[in-house]
């Protein structure tokens, strides 16, 4: 279980999260929605341990262990993964090399180039990504959709215990969205936690989240299920009372 207790986070001196309490249970798909700038990506980055996001109060526990002060690297080793809303471009590093390094790092093992090629080939096929994609430099000159596919390829290769998908569905055409949703469903099992941050009902129709949390002004304003998703689709966020 991933548990967030009274989390307060500052970014560049500005208070963004103001006391978040959340429990994400194993075997569940969770969705987070909320207006732009409400702090969803900040929460994702704080869970991942991005040092830009300063935790001023509160704690994060993963399977009972306090991970509030662990480095991002150690969190990755524990199986926590974040698919970035705006993945960065890395010059001179191919997707192949990047993924192999990330795989070795997260699993604490060294997979041979040959074995990794096999694994990657299998995943590229599932995601309907052309094989030469892995020879490109990470995210360089990628279209929005290609960046998202490269993120989901990472998810597929790393097979983490906790996957946070920050607007991975944004900017995808319908076919790409379906592939990404079905891959997310495929990696899901009763040991895993998936947290999907999204603005759209469409991906949630594929993923059928167990719970939806709505974030407003750095707080969880309410939670619900399918009905709440429809209400937000219809009426936006204005009617939800701030907590
Ligand atoms: P959301 O993902 O819900 O749209 P964010 O967490 O990205 O919201 O942003 C919440 C607020 O924090 C915004 O006002 C945003 O400008 C600010 N913020 C987030 N990340 C940074 C950053 N790295 N540097 C400066 N401000 C940031
Ligand atoms: Mg965001």
Provide the fold topology:
Layout: E1 2-11, E2 14-24, E3 28-33, H1 40-48, E4 53-62, E5 65-66, H2 72-77, E6 80-83, H3 95-107, H4 113-126, H5 144-158, E7 162-166, H6 174-187, E8 193-197, H7 201-207, E9 211-216, E10 219-224, H8 226-235
Parallel strand pairs: 3-8, 3-9, 6-7, 7-8
Antiparallel strand pairs: 1-2, 1-4, 4-5, 9-10
Helix pairs in contact: 3-5, 5-6
The protein binds adenosine-5'-diphosphate and magnesium ion.
Question: Explain this structure to me?
Answer:
- The structure is a single chain.
- With 243 residues, this protein is an alpha/beta fold.
- Helix content is 36%, strand content 27%.
- Strand 4 (53-62) and strand 5 (65-66) form a beta hairpin.
- The longest helix is centred in the middle third of the chain and has 15 residues, at 144-158.
- The two termini are 24 Å apart.
- The mean pLDDT is 94.
- Bound molecules: adenosine-5'-diphosphate and magnesium ion.
- Residues 40-41, 85, 166 line the site of magnesium ion.
